[in-house]
Amino acid sequence: MNANSETAASAVPAGEAPLGALACPEPNARPDLWPTTARRTDSGELEIGGRPVSAILEQAPAPVYVMDEADFRGRAATWAATMAEEFWEGYGLKGGSAFYAGKAFLTTRVARIALEEGLGIDTASRGELAVGLAALEEVDGEDATVRAARLGLHGNGKTEDEVSTAVYHRLGHLVVDSPEEVGYAVAAVRRWREAGHYGPQEQAGLMVRLTTGIHAGGHEFISTAHEDQKFGLSTHTGAARQAIDRIIDAPELELRGLHSHIGSQIADFAGFEQAAEAVLRLRHEVAADTGWLCPEIDLGGGLGIAYTGADEPAPSPAALARSLAAVVRSLCTELGDEAPHVSVEPGRSIAGPGQVTLYRVTGLKRVELGEGASRLYVSVDGGMSDNLRPALYGAAYTALVANRLPGPEAGLVRSRVVGKHCESGDIVVRDVDLPGDLTVGDILAVPATGAYGRSMSMNYNLFTRPGVAWVHEGGQGWVLRPETVEDLLRLEG
Hints:
Elements: E1 39-40, E2 46-48, E3 51-52, H1 53-59, E4 64-68, H2 69-86, E5 96-101, H3 108-116, E6 120-123, H4 126-140, E7 151-153, H5 160-168, E8 173-176, H6 179-194, E9 204-211, E10 233-234, H7 239-249, E11 253-260, H8 270-290, E12 296-298, H9 317-335, E13 341-344, H10 348-351, E14 355-370, E15 373-380, H11 389-393, E16 400-401, E17 412-418, E18 427-435, E19 443-446, E20 468-472, E21 475-480, H12 485-490
Helix pairs in contact: 2-9, 3-4, 5-6, 8-9
């Protein structure tokens, strides 16, 4: 079946962008949307990591996430080097580091690459922490898990067991989000002292998650620093200060730092700069009152990426780090404080662009909308179970025919790429201009799916979650194998 049997493209619905405005950019036109190694071969086929998409699908049937390992490794190394350079002590600062936000996409292989390239690992659950510890042992040895300075644990609603585990492994960043978590940490230190795992005077280092009222991001659900939401302790109501004072007063604990996270998919630096100032001023206030100047601040993550050709190219890690360094240097000089070590937690900007989801076209349905306008509904062999963000956030993606170049006279047709689930909102790409010669069996590549694609995937309609294939210098293997129906059945009691 052909998408445009009449060859001429139909008019777009009233009020929508003109035809052609929503076409997916090729890798050479917008390299920021695609993995570093993505290119068209001489035959017109998309190639990633030295592997044509048809060859990838021979070993990893669609739908499948494809991770460009060189891309991930390069972005991780860039963040590590950038933070080290911009916060170098030679510039009057106290060093900088980056912790990869594992929530974006985490496996032992991914965590191992991040650690090898100089990043720490930021986790938000017992499962993520277990993966981080396994990777840390592989990279730095078993002794490194006893004092896991390169790992962090944050998130709200941590259980007593989760806090105890973090204390046991002496995580570099244990970020408390509530008064209860402070109490859990005190109890854990006492428990591990009694067991002989902690010395009699040894303390657990904690960071406090602040709600500063400064927030940013592309959707309410991913803006995380306004007052009326679940994360953090308010600097305005005094809740943060109460937790800070309790930590300073507790002989079992050390206030290691202050933590801020203002949102996700952030496109400018104003929010980061304001948050940095708020955190540094509170740090100064605490030191003036208690004599304790905490040695570190963590300014979270959230730097955005481009998903479609309509998005502006995202700022670089170096630009953000340089902006934050300038704020820290200037304000610490003004306050007369020694600069802190500064950490950030990028996830999306490391994992996102280096992964592409490949689908097979399974059906084409033209819907007439009146006044000559129509929309082509393109069914694929996946759906919202492998990319929840369009349904959850209204997130926009784009799609490219990857197995070939369109015919020279094909034209374009306003299209909507949809999945197989029993939901009207099961949309993979809401609006995209695809070639008029689109055919069942064609391969569609959806770029920038490395962050929150596989990590938010689900089994609705008892779909099995796709695998993640790595590609590198012409080779290929599994980061995560695809689930099978047998895997689902084995979970039944």
